[in-house]
Amino acid sequence: MSYGALSKNAIKALAMGACRGQFSMNTGEGGITEYHLQPGCDLVWQIGTGYFGCRGDNGRFDHALFEEKSQFSQVKMIEIKISQGAKPSHGGVLPAHKITAEISRIRGIPMGRDCSSPPSHSVFSTPRGLLDFVQRLRDLSGGKPVGFKICIGQHVEFMAICKAMLASNIYPDFITVDGAEGGTGAAPLVFSNRLGVPASEALAFVHNCLV
């Protein structure tokens, strides 16, 4: 989960625990904070539809900001979040009263008004566009591994991504498959109860498609 949803002490504790346990930590889509940047902590920087931490004043993806922050030594991989089981095909809203000066600085969002996380990305809208974005982030980060996170819905949509991989010869370094079992208070119950494929079925399907 992101900073903002979790406190700074929780983020620091998770980062230190990941370092001691010798496993990586995902930032969530809220951006990289100083609390994530513990010595020896391996981070997966998640880029969501709001592009928090690497967004310009217009709310769109900022190449220069991403390039700068991707050079942190703790950032080992970059994950584009397409969808997740907790909030399938649904964006989010951070109410204005929850946006502190610190959150405003970290996420690159203004204070005093609600901040929306759109349900889809503005940088791309097609499977080929996704793969072009994968390659762009790989180039900007200096060759760090780039992949994407997805909760499988319509099977044909992931099959289209596989076809685009073959056509473009661009491949993600990893794919995170999320199951529909995830839950959150930030999504309508009808969405979290009815959308997405369970993890075991989704993993088998993704594996078969890639093979």
Report the average pLDDT across residues.
Answer: 89
User: Which descriptor suits the 3D outline?
Assistant: globular
Q: Poorly predicted ranges (pLDDT <50, ≥5 residues)?
A: none
Question: Using only CA atoms, what is the Rg?
Answer: 17 Å
N/C terminus separation = 31 Å
Counting helices, strands and paired strands, the structural category is: alpha/beta
What is the element string, with H for helices and E for strands? HEEHEEHEHEHEHH
Report the biggest beta sheet as strand number plus sense, adding barrel if it closes: 5 strands, parallel
What is the percentage of strand-forming residues? Answer: 5-15%
Q: Count of helices?
A: 7
Instruction: Walk across the major sheet and give the strand order.
Output: 1-2-3-6-7
Proportion of residues in helical segments:
25-40%
Number of strands: 7
